[in-house]
Amino acid sequence: MEALRGTDPARIGEHALLARLGAGGMGQVYLGRSPGGRLVAVKVIRNEITGHPEALARFRREAETVRAVRSAYTANLIDASLATAPYWLATEYVAGPTLARAVAARGALPADTCLRLFAALAEGLASVHAYGVTHRDLKPQNVILGAQGPQLIDFGIAKGVGATALTQDGQAPGTPGFTAPEVLVGGGSGDGGADVFALGATMAYAATGRPPYGTGDAATVSYRAVHEPVDLAGVEPGLAALIGACVAKDPAQRPDPAEIVRRCGVREALVDDPVYLGFGTLGEAVPVHEMRTQGPGLAYGHPPTDHDASASAPAAPGSAAAAGRGRAGVWVAAVAVVAALSLAAWKLVPFGGQDDGAGGGAGRGKDASAGAAATPARTPGAGGAGAEPPASGGAPAKPPAEYIEGNRISRYFWLPSTDPERAAHGTGACNLAPEQKPPGADFQTGAEVSGKSVKISMRVKYAENSATRPDPYYVSVAVRAPHDLDPQTGKPFPMDNRAVGFTSKPVDIYGKWQTGEFLTLTYPDDFAEHVNGKTYPAVPLSADPGDWTVVFYHVEDDPAEYASIACSGFQVG
User: Fold this and answer.
1) What are phi and psi of 417, to 5 degrees?
2) How far is CA 70 from the centre of its chain?
3) How far is the C-alpha of 319 from the C-alpha of 322, rounded, in Å?
4) 126/262 Cα distance (integer angstroms)
5) Rounded-to-integer distance, Cα 70 and Cα 131, Å
6) Distance between CA atoms of residues 404 and 407, nearest Å
7) Higher pLDDT, 307 or 449
8) Is the CB of residue 14 less than 8 Å from the CB of residue 29?
9) Which of 495, 481, 504 is nearest to 412 (CA)?
10) Average pLDDT over residues 404-413
11) Is the pLDDT of residue 458 over 90?
12) 62 pLDDT higher than 70
């Protein structure tokens, strides 16, 4: 999700635009707000292709299909304009990552999770087929992992009963690697059996984390789909057999959706699956400030003259009000949008970057390891309770909060050295560089495991040689287990941990500047996790053996404003 650009319209039809959700071959998709305050996804066809009859016919087909299908597995049509330019349609906004994004971020899904997702998607296909519609482009990018279950999106090339094909001569509909052999060879549009093939290929991707028929140009991948077996190396045998049946070369040999559901043997709800629950942390961020009343003198639902959230007088640059008004201001995770659906178990960690992990800065709700921090680097001088006035003679700054919020996705991972001798002494490296330069000439850190605890130390070397006490510079240390943890039980989920982790109270790194000693914290005693206003105690080291990561964050006045200055780690046997 991105902020609106200067060239974007403020509204489409009756819908106020809030942000960019993404773009495709047909057009731009926006997050919008309906006149009644409902979140909608607004797809606007590109100006440069409005003169192409084929493109317009495909767009109108998508609107007609979405209007015809009223399924719990599809986003319902809210509004559309198909008569004159600009052509657009608005559907329900579904919060959650695509299956493609989830697998790219977390890797292949466990077999049990795959079977539950398999059954849910097969049930969704059965629901769509019951309306006489075939999707024709089912793939991981067109499956959204919503809080209540998966949703099928993008019916741009879907075909209803009796409808004529919209593809050009010599071109098969769909996406290479997910298009059925009979469609590729015969050039036809395919039927429900082709959707089953695409479902099988999609689940092969989910189960392996790899493209089902490898990579390469479209012709090469399509040739493999027609003549070679699907890639199922390493997949649990029962799951592999079901996927193999779905991607059978002969459509007559494929099971129908109802048979797929039966063979999955699901006995629990998908949304109770711990791995599926974990995907809630990958949800896009929603600019809630844009959903609020539009400022003094404007009735709710009437947008201001520009894209800002308020039409009142501009705030002074740098003020809290100014920081909260811009399109990239206050953000919360999109999962909160569906919190009213009684799925509070979706643990909230906003993800504010681009698809598949390419992210923006590390400001509020942003990726904690995606590059430069959203707020400028500060010189030592954040101030603190009882801190001496800075050397400049000015008043000390407001102290930071008692904690930092676990409001980000973190991609820092520490790995021990490949040299056995160095690894034996706890030597290793992190995969990413810090976002800010640490203070002083030499910032030193350490992590020493002793029994059930870890002593984590840090200091700015040679600070003691300074004639005057350096300005306070607050650091919070984050300790993260190898795997994502259930905040209620402390038990690990079978997936890599992308949370900020358990963090310490911010401490002034110059606290022992006169003696030059290391400032030391103890895990788990000095650490806790703070998410969504709740605090969870740190888990014991024994809860998750493996490579633990330690990140040192420079903390701003706001508990959501912090940037990394160093990264380390340790091993738990």
Assistant:
1) -60, 145
2) 27
3) 5
4) 13
5) 8
6) 9
7) 449
8) no
9) 481
10) 81
11) yes
12) no
Confidence check: pLDDT of 371 > 70: no
Helices and strands in the chain, H and E counts: 11, 26
Contact criterion met (CB below 8 Å) for 250 and 66: no
Contact call for residues 233 and 212 (beta carbons, < 8 A): no
Mean pLDDT (whole number) for 109-131: 92
What DSSP line would sit under 401-426, residue for residue? PSS----S-----EEE-SSHHHHHTT
| Gap between the Cα atoms of 228 and 336, Å rounded | 44
**Higher per-residue confidence, 132 vs 541:** 541
**Band of residue 476 on the pLDDT scale cut at 50, 70, 90:** very high
DSSP assigned state of 186: H
Side-chain half-sphere of 261: how many Cα atoms within 13 Å?
Answer: 14
Find where tokens 């089953």 sit.
196
Calculate the alpha carbon distances from 176 to 62, 107, 226, 402 in Å. 21, 21, 11, 52
- What percent of the chain has pLDDT above 90? 32
> Residues 137, 231, 308, 367: which is the catalytic one?
137
Rounded to whole angstroms, the Cα distance separating 410 from 80 reads 39
Q: Which amino acid is at 318?
A: G
Under the banding of pLDDT at 50, 70 and 90, the label for residue 467 is confident
pLDDT tens digits along 92-103: 888 888 999 999
User: What pLDDT sits at residue 112?
Assistant: 95
Clarify whether 137 is annotated catalytic: yes
Tell me how crowded residue 496 is: count the other CB atoms within 10 A of its CB: 14
Cβ atoms 449, 571 nearer than 8 A: yes
Cβ atoms 565, 443 nearer than 8 A = yes
Q: Report the C-alpha gap between 180 and 200 in whole angstroms.
A: 10
User: For the stretch 198-208, what's the b/e string if a residue is b when 16 or more beta carbons lie within 10 angstroms of its beta carbon?
Assistant: bbbbbbbbbbb
Instruction: Determine how many CB atoms are found less than 10 A away from the CB of residue 342.
Output: 9
| 129, 132, 137, 141: CA torsion to nearest 10 | -50
Confidence band of 188 (pLDDT split at 50, 70, 90): low
- Beta strands per DSSP E along 110-231: 133-134, 143-146, 149-152, 159-160
Q: Cα separation of 529 and 346, whole Å?
A: 16
What pLDDT score does 284 carry? 57
Q: What are the structural domains, with CATH classification, of the chain?
A: 11-93 (3.30.200.20), 99-279 (1.10.510.10), 379-572 (no CATH)
User: pLDDT at residue 290 above 50?
Assistant: no
Is the separation of the CB atoms in 181 and 226 below 8 Å? Answer: yes
Mean pLDDT value across the chain: 74
The beta strand positions in 13-121, using DSSP E, are 15-23, 27-33, 39-45, 77-81, 88-92
Residue 21: what are its φ and ψ, rounded to 5°? -95, -30
Q: What is the band of 25 on the pLDDT scale with cuts at 50, 70, 90? A: low
**Strongest mean pLDDT among 49-53, 256-260, 393-397:** 256-260
In the chain, the amino acid numbered 137 is: D
Count of residues making up the chain = 573
Residue 519's DSSP bridge partners are 458
Task: Give the number of other CB atoms < 10 A from CB of residue 234.
Answer: 11
